[in-house]
Write a structure and sequence with these properties.
The structure is a homodimer.
Chain A lengths: L1 E4 L7 E5 L6 E7 L3 E8 L3 E9 L4 E6 L2 E3 L3 E5 L2 E6 L6 E9 L3 H11 L5 H16 L2 E4 L3 H13 L5 E2 L5 E4 L4 E4 L5 E2 L3 H4 L3 H8 L1 H18 L6 E2 L2 E2 L8 H10 L7 H14 L12 H9 L24 H21 L3 H10 L7 E2 L4 E2 L30 H4 L7 H8 L2 H13 L6 H7 L6 E2 L2 E2 L18 H15 L15 H11 L1 E2 L7 E4 L6 E5 L5 E7 L7 E7 L2 E2 L4 E3 H5 L3 E7 L9
Parallel strand pairs in A: 25-29
Antiparallel strand pairs in A: 1-10, 2-9, 3-4, 3-8, 4-5, 5-10, 6-7, 6-9, 11-24, 12-15, 13-14, 16-17, 18-19, 20-21, 22-23, 23-28, 24-25, 26-27, 26-29
Helix pairs in contact in A: 3-17, 5-6, 6-8, 7-8, 7-10, 8-10, 10-11
């Protein structure tokens, strides 16, 4: 419902209708206050609209910049308008609904959605709906600024996915057909970003909705033949790289979420791992590079002077050979673990082996993950700056310093590669202080997505979220506490600087929600939360099972950011993690906070 | 005085001595706790040091990375060290003094400066000295954050210039000789940055010090034959462009500052305007481009495909033809106005004519200042993005949108070029919302100094300081109030983001001090302050003449940022400015603030 307030007694009150990017549209007015229209989106999706104004006006259309008196128009860039006289109300209201199914359904949706209330009532209802969602987590303490940042983030975590069920039917972009269903059908999920913290957050707050989402994924797989990795309205949009919906399925399954066909889901994620191309921004069957990966255990890169020979490679996105190998290792681990859950022991073993593929690109001289060519030779690169725009020849959007840490599924294995926990900790320290070796503008001209920099750490991009929590695995939880507080304080202010990078459909906000509450799902696929440093003295999460999870941080403040000691359900907790089962059982985490680190806690 | 705290009973307590950039140095230890040394800075300045430790240690030197037992060393990259045993105090203190004159003077300075007090006493004395400076302005109201930003800025305004008088003598980099004097001799002034707000601020707060600075400039002119524009320790470092020390002399003279040889000063600034090259980052006699300027009234640019023919042009800094012409017009105006003050009527007329040279580059089609070649043809450029790194072929560090406003000395003339005040105001609005037309990182790769962007407005670079105040001249003081509050709030936070660009030796901080107090010296050279929007409800400036200037802003708050009405000394003030004479007489500006603009006030 739109409300347009015109100057009092204005003689010129008009509203113009247009569609995104001047695409193909049709508009028609009837009765002086009724509009019906349809937009063709992404070439194959019809978006029907039906709406009514609160007053009668004179409709017209725009054809090649000429205003005409016709009341309907169709074609590319078609626009229409309606003009109200000075006698019409100064506040013009327009109520409308859309449908992906038909004009009739749009009208029906209009009737279903507008049941008599006025603007104020609708606003009040929306406020109530949001309050219900946002108040599911109650916090005490913290500064006003921290509370604003937290609740803004929590709000944003509820923007996607989007339920497109209309009266028991939905139009699917996955087979271009209308389906009947009794459940919600969700689209629009940016999994490369959201598998990390947003899906895990929803698994806590709204497991029934998460179940519907998983079921939607399975439906999409059944309709299209492929399990999507970045499902949007018109189908799977294979942004970024990896098959991280696999990790999402494993994580939710292990957190007890059911209500979807897990065998069918497994079939889909296994098909991705064995028959789909791993190439970034590409869908469909595997190519020679994927066969190479299955045999050799790494995705091959080109030597610096070598021309691309594989036509399927996206000309801008390139091979991202290291990023694909590391992401593939994680996804393969998840396939194997889900196989284990389903007692598919052969698959479990096969994929457990592939889960260690990341080791194939560990370069012991450079102490980084470095690309290899198809002959197994290292490519001689500067992992900080080589690989073209966004480092895409080898990495993706970020450089080797970020990809050094992309082994969430085998942190102990990564520690072993580095030699020991001290080396690992030192390397973490170095990540946060390593210089750019060049001006910031020169760096950003190459890595524009690596924003929110602290040394080489990029708070503004998802692959960095878990990095500050890795200190918990290296005997220095106090450094996790220090970093997390610093990062929240610097990069998630309640001011015009907002969010330090692409918010990615809730992906980034979920990091803020978890981190502000004091814990984080460091390895999606393992139902474990690692403990950081809460900004609040008390957090109460109202669970859908009727229980409450509580986090109490005594003496917590801007200064008192270090954990002195901890209890879980009243018993001493001497490690910086707890699990999902403990959380949903209505557990209580109690922390004693202080101004100086207790370097012995949690080690 | 340095204090080094070592771990208790540490067996390894060493201090290493090195010089900037591994330059030429000499070090020698005597008596186990005495150090004498000399560094050669900038090839021709000797910096002598003399110091003492609070304990005896074992000295050594470093020669090509080898630690040797000698107690003295000399040469390029020479380093020395001293090591204390476990029995020595855990807190090692080092007191030292430097001299630019001689080793003996360094020792004498040491004696003069350390008169018995310990570390705590010295710290207390320093605090007292700073408190005296900082508390010269008392504020009430505003947020804690605003007070922190304000006093931090005021502190920074006292870092430069630096008095290098040692016991009545100083070494001058301007003739490489030692001079005797009874006054302070000041060096290190970044005039392109500081003539705008820092010198005007000092003219209010410490006119005696400002007088000593002007006298130092005259001495430098007498010693070197040229009036400096960016005087540092070793001589004039002709950074940036323009002869803005001319404007500084005029401004101070008109504010009643005396105690320097104004005739000699005039001789120097006139010599700059008639015999020195205007080329950026170049000192010395004029070249053919300057002769061209004198005759044609603009600095000629090269056509895009034309090679540089003038060998004096700096290969990186280029001609900056528009920036030089606009800056030259302002400086020429200032020469003429100073001539008027000194009753040199011929010069007054000559330079008044040159003061309008900026008009020669006004392009009525592009509504911008656009470069012309030597034949008088326009160069066909995109003023937003052309001109190479920092736009230096035509502009400097900023693009045509910033240089559009570089006519502080003739604002009415600029309004006339634009047609009328409405056009002028619209163009100001557009400056604050004009897009980059490209990604931010692509823009910054070309204009790395144009930081703190709001549209095309760059809060992070000095040429933009006066722009938000220009609304006062175009019938919309409320927009000045709105912009200034927005800019202070966004770009001068009391947090890690600090200052939005190069602080430039107090240049930028002085903008914050003035703007937070609610007024600004929009045209240095005219002793007038234009009124913005104070962040404080009361400001008291303790003047050196024993009087107080007061600014009272009733109802001032973060929300109440708009001036509703004003009084000066109790009488209604209906224009947004007052003058220096009124200020130093102990005037009182009283504003009534409110949440909505009074668009009629001050127009």
């Amino acid at each position: 419902m739109y409300r347009f307030s015109f100057p009092a007694k204005s003689a010129f009150k008009s509203v113009l209708f247009n569609v995104y990017n001047d695409g193909v549209a049709k508009w028609s007015f009837t009765g002086g206050n009724e509009l019906a229209g349809v937009e063709t989106y992404h070439d194959d999706i019809k978006v029907y609209v039906y709406g009514q104004f609160n007053a009668k006006g004179t409709a017209g259309v725009v054809n090649n910049d000429a205003l005409l008196k016709e009341t309907s128009i169709e074609g590319k860039g078609a626009k229409s308008f309606i003009t109200f006289t000075a006698d019409a109300p100064d506040v013009i209201e327009f109520r409308y609904a859309i449908s992906y199914i038909s004009p009739e359904q749009a009208k029906q949706n209009f009737k279903d959605e507008f049941t008599g209330g006025d603007f104020a009532a609708l606003k009040q209802a929306a406020k109530g709906a949001w309050a219900k969602v946002v108040n599911q987590i109650a916090v005490e303490g913290g500064t006003v600024a921290q509370r604003r940042s937290f609740y803004t983030a929590l709000y944003r975590c509820n923007e996607r996915m989007v339920n497109i069920n209309e009266d028991g039917r939905y139009y699917s972009g996955y087979d271009k057909k209308v389906h009947e269903t009794t459940r919600s059908f969700y689209v629009d999920d940016w999994v490369w970003d959201t598998y990390l913290a947003l899906h895990p957050l929803r698994a806590i707050l709204n497991p029934a909705m998460e179940s519907d989402m998983l079921n939607s994924y399975v439906n999409m797989y059944q309709q299209s033949g492929w399990m999507p990795t970045f499902p949007v309205l018109f189908g799977d949009n294979p942004c970024m790289n990896g098959f991280h919906s696999t990790v999402m399925f494993l994580d939710d399954y292990r957190k007890g979420i059911r209500g979807f066909d897990v065998e069918k889901a497994y079939e889909g994620v296994k098909k991705n791992a064995t028959q789909a191309t791993m190439l970034p921004w590409k869908n469909g069957p595997k190519c020679e590079l994927d066969d190479f990966y299955y045999v050799k255990g790494y995705f091959p890169a080109l030597q610096k002077d070598e021309k691309e020979t594989v036509s399927l490679v996206h000309p801008f996105e390139k091979r991202q050979a290291v990023a694909v190998t590391l992401g593939g290792s994680y996804d393969d681990w998840a396939v194997g673990q889900l196989a284990a859950e389903l007692n598919k022991t052969d698959d479990e073993a096969l994929f457990a082996k592939r889960a260690t593929n990341y080791k194939n690109l560990w370069n012991d001289d450079k102490r980084m993950f470095i690309p290899k060519d198809k002959a197994g030779n290292w490519i001689n690169i500067d992992p900080k700056f080589d690989g073209g725009l966004g480092g895409r020849d080898y990495y993706d959007e970020n450089n080797g310093w970020t990809y050094l840490w992309q082994v969430q599924h085998d942190i102990d294995g990564l520690i072993n590669l580095m030699g020991n926990k001290i080396n690992f900790q030192n390397k973490l320290d170095q990540t946060f202080r390593e210089g750019l070796d060049r001006s910031k503008y020169e760096f950003w001209a190459k890595f524009p997505d690596a924003t929110g920099l602290v040394g080489q750490y990029s708070m503004g991009n998802e692959p960095s979220f878990h990095i500050p929590y890795l200190y918990n695995y290296a005997g220095a939880p106090w450094k996790t506490q220090k970093r997390i507080r610093f990062l929240l304080d610097v990069w998630y202010k309640d001011n015009i600087f907002g969010i330090p990078g692409d918010e990615d459909g809730g992906g980034m906000s979920a990091f803020v929600v978890f981190s502000s509450m004091g814990f984080y799902p460091i390895t999606p696929g393992r139902p474990v939360y690692t403990i950081g440093s809460p900004v609040f003295s008390k957090v109460t999460v109202n669970l859908s099972n009727g229980k409450q999870f509580k986090m109490v941080a005594n003496n917590c403040s801007v200064i008192n950011k270090y954990i002195q000691s901890a209890k879980f359900n009243g018993k001493a907790l001497n490690k910086p993690w707890f699990n999902h089962e403990q959380l949903v059982a209505g557990g209580e985490l109690e922390l004693e906070m202080g101004p100086k680190p207790n370097k012995n806690w949690g080690i």
